[in-house]
Design goal:
3 helices; 85 residues; two-stranded antiparallel sheet; globular
């Protein structure tokens, strides 16, 4: 596992948010795609979950903006682990 230097999004409390958060398992691109499929194409949570191989519960929370809903307040340079999944 290698570390790479990236720009890290921070919330108002200067904590990492989005795909650079240490517990994030889904990229910001996938989160945006989930919301697009639900809002623009009116796809159900279950159908999106099956399409993207995610849990329906997670997809529902993203669509209702209960997860991954913070807007970056600031940015900083930081390191993330380059995962080889």
């Amino acid at each position: 596992m290698t570390r790479k230097l990236v720009m890290v999004a921070l919330n108002e409390q200067r904590k990492r948010i989005g795909q650079t958060h240490h517990n994030a398992r889904v990229s910001d691109i996938v989160v945006n795609r989930i919301r697009e499929l639900h809002e623009d194409y009116l796809m159900s949570y279950g159908r999106i979950a099956k399409l993207l191989c995610l849990s329906r519960h997670y997809v529902a929370k993203v669509c209702r903006y209960e997860r991954r809903a913070q807007i970056p307040h600031d940015w900083k340079r930081g390191f993330i682990d380059d995962r080889q999944d």
